[in-house]
Amino acid sequence: MKNNKLIKIIDLIISSNKSDFTGLGIIIYEDKLDLPIESMNDNCCLKNLIDESENISSFLTKISNKNNDCHDGFHLINSDFQLTDISFYFSTPIISNIKPKKKKGSRYRTAFYGSMLKNIVCTISISSNMEAYIFINGKEYTIDEYRML
């Protein structure tokens, strides 16, 4: 399931190495109709879909700082790799008998549990210190592990 567009987006975000980067969460989805999501800010609507890895990563890096009203929440990319929505609350159920590998924050856990939902291709959590994790059906990969799939 390795996707080179996803690798490129993550690599470009990580390589930006901006000091004011707050981290971000990404949902790659097939269909968002039944996803447990809600816009966190009505002013954070995209006027047009954003495609091309360079454009997506540049846009997400630009908004991922505490001074941008749209930095919070998860950002949605469809299975055609177009950024469709930004700044969404992602409310995932907790599966009590499955736990993530690491003791990380809310974005990491939400990405972990969210990766097991129907219509989710994968989820991504990138921390403020540029640690990236990709989750596919509850399996966690670092960017280097994902490259080797």
Mean pLDDT: 94
What characteristic shape results from the CA principal axes? globular
Could you tell me how far the N terminus lies from the C terminus, measured between alpha carbons in angstroms? Answer: 7 Å
Summed up, the helix count is 4
**What is the β-strand count?**
7
Low-confidence stretches: none
- Read across the widest sheet, the strand sequence of neighbours is 2-4-3-1-5-6-7
The helix/strand class is alpha+beta
Percent strand equals: 25-35%
Summarize the amount of helix as a percent range: 25-40%
Provide a descriptive summary of the structure in words:
The protein is of the alpha+beta class and 149 residues long. Helix content is 26%, strand content 26%. The chain has four helices and seven strands, in the order αββαββαβββα. The chain has helices at residues 4-16, 53-63, 106-114, 143-147; strands at 24-29, 37-39, 74-78, 83-90, 120-126, 132-136, 139-142. It has a seven-stranded mixed sheet. Helix 1 packs parallel to helix 2 (53-63). The protein is globular, with a radius of gyration of 14 Å. The mean pLDDT is 94.
Comma- or semicolon-separated keywords:
26% strand, globular, alpha+beta, 149 residues, seven-stranded mixed sheet, 4 helices
Write the layout of secondary structure elements.
Layout: H1 4-16, E1 24-29, E2 37-39, H2 53-63, E3 74-78, E4 83-90, H3 106-114, E5 120-126, E6 132-136, E7 139-142, H4 143-147
Parallel strand pairs: 1-3
Antiparallel strand pairs: 1-5, 2-4, 3-4, 5-6, 6-7
Helix pairs in contact: 1-2
